[in-house]
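Protein modeling request. Please complete all fields; requests missing the sequence field cannot be processed.
Requester role: graduate student
Desired output: 3D structure, token encoding
Chains: 1
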Amino acid sequence: MVKAVYSGTFDPVTNGHLDIIERASKMFDEVYVTIFGHPTKTALLTIEERIDLLNIATKHLDNVHVDASTSLAVDYCRKVGATILLRGIRNTSDYEYESNMAYANRYLDSSVETLFMVTSPEFAFVSSSRVKEIASFHRDVNDLVPACVAGVLKKKYEEKSL
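Delivered output (162 residues):
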């Protein structure tokens, strides 16, 4: 049984993330979509909100598990018995950042392999940050995120406008 961990902040989950998750679910026996914090990012959504949204967005995928962790990704992989750490790549900037992280993770635990998946072309410009920026101007993000996420973002930014 091959298990993979797809780690990220998922603040919010986008259709680009979902594209990677759906493709990974066909490649691996189990996929753990795991929310990790990021030291330089301030989250819009709580961990609980992100878990709920990921569960809704992936409910059609029986082998996908949603979780959150404060540990190192390689330690989380060891905890769930995963040997693959999955990372999505949109462009060369992502590759530079992710390859550096992969080298560090390999140093920390050489039994965990990092696998890069290139996003589908229609999602190459989609990032959580870009989605939040567009939504903050009360623009439509329905084509960029799952429907459950679009509704939550609309509500969040309407509340911030008050």
